[in-house]
Amino acid sequence: MTGIVVSQSLVISAGVDDLNADSPIVGYQTLVTAGNIDATTEASDFPASNLANPVTHLIWKAAAVGDNYVTVVLDTPEEVDYLAIAAHNFGSGLMVLSVEGNADSPSIGSPNDEWFELVPEAMATVDGPLIFRFTKQSLYAVRLRIQTSQSSPALVPQIGVMYVGALLYMQRRLYVGHTPLTYGRQLSTANLRSINGAFLGRIVLGQTRKSSASFQNLTPDWFRTYLDPFLIAAQESPFFFAWRPGSYPSEAGFAWFVDDPDVGNQRGNGMMQVTMNMEGVA
């Protein structure tokens, strides 16, 4: 399992005429709050409520290995089509993940709960951001199931951020000239050498990922209806981004803007363009 994990029955319907599997996706809407998220177990000082905060150094950590569920319960049914996580250790632990939904019960935890599979079980192979996609539907609750691997039975699951909501599908695709977030490596290093210039080693002090995405010929109505709300929300909050999810599912990121997006009117017919410079977690 790498960056994009897709339901086998995924059906995309997002109001974009030229939509296909490689249309870039943005996960910025999240319905997760400190009050509506819960976990099967929580280690002391690492509650599930930390997942509602987009800062990645505040984490949820399970109190035990084995099956753990992280559940988001909504006050009313909402149209959702993704669950995304960042700053986790599931790849290191080769943990098996799946996503389940509940469409009927507003009182999660009752004996009559009816959960069904949204995204089937798969083993995580990376610790980078993961986006689980499924057909948009009205749900009362969504939960992530985490099964500890027998090969790493002592590794306790942990996550830094979880989003649940509806994806933004970009109206145009990205082609040449784009650097995927996963390859935009930016390192802070200390290079050590002796007085006579001999190489003594190199220490990586920190790292991040950088990228830029430019979109052209955006129709006026689409820009104002769908993209501008994202640009406003991203002034304060980070987002999940995948530039070509069908062809390169491992190249997803959790990112934020490093400066104001460059927006402009492109044509006499009102077509718009935007360039977004972003930085993401390594």
Element layout with pairings:
Layout: E1 4-6, E2 25-27, E3 37-39, E4 60-61, E5 67-86, E6 96-102, E7 116-123, E8 130-147, E9 158-159, E10 161-165, E11 168-169, E12 185-193, E13 199-218, H1 220-233, E14 239-242, E15 252-257, E16 262-265, E17 272-280
Shape: globular
**What's the name of the CATH homologous superfamily of the largest domain?**
Galactose-binding domain-like
Q: Give the helix/strand class.
A: mainly beta
Count of folded domains: 2
Question: Low-confidence spans: pLDDT under 50, at least 5 residues?
Answer: none
User: Which fold does the CATH topology of the largest domain refer to?
Assistant: Jelly Rolls
* Rg, alpha carbons: 20 Å
Total count of strands: 17
- CATH architecture term of the largest domain: Sandwich
Strand content: 35-45%
Query: What is the straight-line distance between the termini?
Result: 18 Å
Number of helices: 1
The biggest beta sheet reads:
8 strands, antiparallel
Overview of the molecule:
The chain has two domains: about 170 residues, Jelly Rolls, CATH 2.60.120.260; about 100 residues, no CATH class. With about 280 residues, the protein is mainly β. The protein is globular, with a radius of gyration of 20 Å. Strands 2, 11, 12, 13, 14, 15, 16 and 17 form an eight-stranded antiparallel sheet that branches. Strands 1, 3, 5, 6, 7, 8 and 10 form a seven-stranded mixed sheet that branches. A two-stranded antiparallel ribbon has the order 4-9. It contains one helix and 17 strands.
